[in-house]
Amino acid sequence: MANTRELRRRIKSTKNTAQITKAMQMVSAVKMRRAQDQALNGRPYSENLNEALSRLLPRVDIKSHPLLSGNDSKATGVIILSTDKGLCGSLNTNIIRTIMNARFEGNTLFYTVGKKGRNFVVKSGKTLTADFENPDLVIFRKAVQLTNMVKDSFTSGEVGQVYLVYPQFISTIKQEPKMVKLLPVEVSSVVVSDSLKSTATKNDTANNEFLYEPNVDALLDSLLLHEIQIKIYQALLET
């Protein structure tokens, strides 16, 4: 009889554990779906921002703008986006390998989001300029903080170029390391998607009649800064 009661107790305990596990699985699935939707839904906005920039750039003197022309500093700033924990395959390993394979000029200053990236910088004896916690909920303010920090370093001449390294979202089971140059903003990086190109072609005549307020230069200042903010924000979402 004692053995029977013990078996029933174990069966009940196993069922309770199964219920808890199922609930955790459902919560994780919802979080994963929400993160996936955020990562994918942000891309059209970035494409339209690129389209707006592509209309403005031909109207300005690129060499006269500090975010486009650059400076004489040989130092490099690198933003690393990583996770806080493992259990995500080779995601963090690929990010670190991408950084190690890159040949940055001069001294390199690192800005990290996520413990894995920070640990890599500290253990390898590199310069950790700033470290941010990996937020459970990605907010745009985090991207603004990072943007302001690297922009100040760039405009002051502390660094001559800034790169962003992050895991680009391909699918829920596949992420590929990607490195993009944030500063100085390269005109060639302002790429317009095919769908937007067709729309822009149809509106070429209308584009010539656009009035930019307060003026083209002021609007470009705002859009260039916002372009960097959006790139960092999108990378945070995809990480």
Describe the protein in words.
With 239 residues, the protein is α/β, with parallel strands linked by helices. It has one domain (42-238): ATP synthase, F1 complex, gamma subunit (Pyruvate Kinase, Chain: A, domain 1). The protein is 54% helix and 16% strand. It is built from 9 helices and 5 strands, in the order αααβαβαβαββααα. The protein has a 5-stranded mixed β-sheet with strand order 3-2-1-4-5, with helices on both faces. It is elongated and about 85 Å long. The N and C termini lie far apart (55 Å). The model has no long low-confidence stretch (mean pLDDT 83).
Number of DSSP helical runs: 9
Describe the largest sheet. Answer: 5 strands, mixed
User: What oligomeric arrangement do these chains adopt?
Assistant: single chain
Q: Strand order within the widest sheet?
A: 3-2-1-4-5
List unreliable stretches of 5+ residues. none
Q: Rg from C-alpha positions? A: 23 Å
User: What value does the average pLDDT take?
Assistant: 83
What is the annotated CATH architecture? 3-Layer(aba) Sandwich
Helix content: 40-55%
β-strand percent reads 15-25%
Kindly report the CATH topology: Pyruvate Kinase, Chain: A, domain 1
Shape: elongated
Q: Structural class, please?
A: alpha/beta
Q: Quick one: how many beta strands?
A: 5
Q: Could you give the order of the helices and strands?
A: HHHEHEHEHEEHHH
- The separation of the N and C termini measures 55 Å
CATH-defined superfamily: ATP synthase, F1 complex, gamma subunit
Membrane topology: Peripheral membrane protein
Pfam families: ATP-synt (PF00231)
Family: Belongs to the ATPase gamma chain family.
GO molecular function: proton-transporting ATP synthase activity, rotational mechanism
